[in-house]
């Protein structure tokens, strides 16, 4: 790296940067450290399973924030807390709210109302899904994912043993949330 034009530096001296510059190797680390310290001030904690996943649990509910480079997903059941988080981050960083999630890391995200929560899991339980091929593709993708994520193997293989031809709403909930 060369010193900035107009800066005279003796040949046996080095420059010490006080902050990371975009494009340098330490810039992503500096960005993550700044983001982490900022989000911790709002009461979020880092997940012990993924350092890019931050969560906050309150009496109103849970909020999850997943950070990938400079993209983030914010979700949870505390809608006022989500808005508070967005407002806080907008004051700290330049950011744009892109609305509901449609794509993330090459995955298409769809929203469904066919899902029943808190039902007991049986091979014939729940409503048949309107499009069982989506369930079949989800199971196949998740089985492939277990190669690098053994922590989800149990849930995926339980979902794989269910009736794949019809696909039922309770099976989908089990695969997505790991509970029946």
From TrEMBL:
Pfam families: RVT_2
Residue span, Reverse transcriptase Ty1/copia-type domain: 2-114
Protein name (record): Reverse transcriptase Ty1/copia-type domain-containing protein
Species name: Vitis vinifera (Grape)
Domain of life: Eukaryota
């Amino acid at each position: 790296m060369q010193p900035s034009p107009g800066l005279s530096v003796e040949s046996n001296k080095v420059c010490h940067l006080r902050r990371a510059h975009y494009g340098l190797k330490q810039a992503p680390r500096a960005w993550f450290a700044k983001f982490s310290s900022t989000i911790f001030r709002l009461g979020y904690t880092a997940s012990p399973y993924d350092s890019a996943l931050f969560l906050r649990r309150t009496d109103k509910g849970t909020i999850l924030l997943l950070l990938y480079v400079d993209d983030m997903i914010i979700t949870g059941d505390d809608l006022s807390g989500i808005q508070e988080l967005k407002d806080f981050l907008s004051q700290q960083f330049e950011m744009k709210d892109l609305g509901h999630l449609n794509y993330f890391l090459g995955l298409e995200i769809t929203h469904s109302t066919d899902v029943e929560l808190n039902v007991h899991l049986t091979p014939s339980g729940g409503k048949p899904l309107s499009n069982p091929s989506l369930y079949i593709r989800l199971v196949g993708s998740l089985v492939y994912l277990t190669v690098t994520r053994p922590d989800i193997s149990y849930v995926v293989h339980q979902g794989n043993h269910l009736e794949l031809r019809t696909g039922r709403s309770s099976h989908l909930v089990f695969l997505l949330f790991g509970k029946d």
